Amino acid sequence: MDYRRMSPEAKAAYLAERPRCELRCGRASAQVDHDHATDEVRGALCRRCNSRLGSLEAALRLPGGEFQSLAGDLHRALWRDGSANLAGYRGDFAYLGLTMKEYTARLRKVHELLVLPYVYWAQVTAEPFGRGTAWTKIGPLCDDTEARRHLTRLVNNTPPPHLWVSMTREPDDGLNSPAPRALVAAAGRTEGAKETYLALRRELIDMSGYEAKCRDFADLAVPVLLSRPLTLRQVRDAHHDPRVAMPRTREQLRTLIGDQ
Fold it and tell me: Which residues pair with 102 in a beta bridge?
C-alpha cells in the first residue's frame, strides 16, 4: 500500500483497525508509518514512536540541513566517544527489518562521510533560529582542533553584539551550505547572549494587561479548585515542580496555584 495514495479517510480507517502502536509501547496509534524511500506503508504508530523511528532513519542518510534531534545525538556520540549506545532501540531496529549490527554498520558508514569541519556564527536577534537566520562561516578547516580554536575565540573574545556559534562536521559533497549542516558537534554563545535574546523577545511581546489577566484568572479559578478536595497526586499531576515543597495548607495551595 502506497502512503501517498491514501486519502484522509483511508488513513483514519487504517488507524481504526490498528488502535494500538505497533511498537508495543501501550499508547494509542495516531499516525500511519511508511518507508520514506519506497513510500510503502509499514504500520500504525503513536506520535512519540513515529518521531523516534523517523530520527533513527534520518541518522542513516545525509541531510540537507542539520540532523534531527536523536540522529544528531547518535552522530555526536560517535564523534565524541567513537560509539553510540543503541541497546535501547532493538525493538525499533526489528520493526525496520534490521539487526543492531546492521544498523550500526550503516550509521558508521554515514558518519565516515562527515569529514569537513566548519564554524558558523550568527548575531543574536529577537528572532528564533530559522531559514531567515544570517550565518557567517569559516571553513572547511584542517581538523576539529582548529575548528574548536575558532569556536573558543568567537565565544570568549567577541564584544557585543552577541553571537550564537556552532561547530559542524559536514560531508564533502560540493554543497556550500548557508547554515549549519549535518552534525552540529559543538555549540556555544558569547557571555550574555541568552539574556540579550530573552530581553529582545520580551520587547516584541505585548505584556500590557498580562499580569492583571493572570490575577483575574487566579481569583476565578482558585475558589473553584479549593471548593473540592485535591489529593497530593492530583497536585503533582498538574505539572507541579518537584523542586518546590508540596503545599500543606490552603494558603500554600492558593499561592502555588496562583503562581502556576
Answer: none
Question: Which three cell numbers, joined as nine digits, stand for 44?
Answer: 500504525
Question: Is the distance from CB of 147 to CB of 117 less than 8 angstroms?
Answer: yes
Report how far apart the first and last C-alpha atoms of the chain are (Å, whole number): 48
Q: What is the pLDDT of residues 146-163, one digit of tens each?
A: 999 999 999 998 777 899
Task: Quick: pLDDT tens for 196-253.
Answer: 888 888 877 766 677 777 777 777 767 766 676 666 566 555 545 556 666 666 676 6
Spatial CA neighbour of 71 closest among 90, 44, 89, 47: 89
Question: Nine-digit cell at 243?
Answer: 523542586
Q: Are 166 and 138 in contact (CB under 8 A)?
A: no
Amino acid at 191: E
Indicate the pTM of the whole model: 0.73
Report residue 119 CA to chain centroid gap.
Answer: 21
Amino acid letter, 97: G
**Separation between Cα atoms, residue 35 and residue 31, nearest integer Å:** 13
Q: Which residues pair with 122 in a beta bridge?
A: 164
Q: Give the count of beta carbons closer than 10 Å to the beta carbon of residue 46.
A: 19
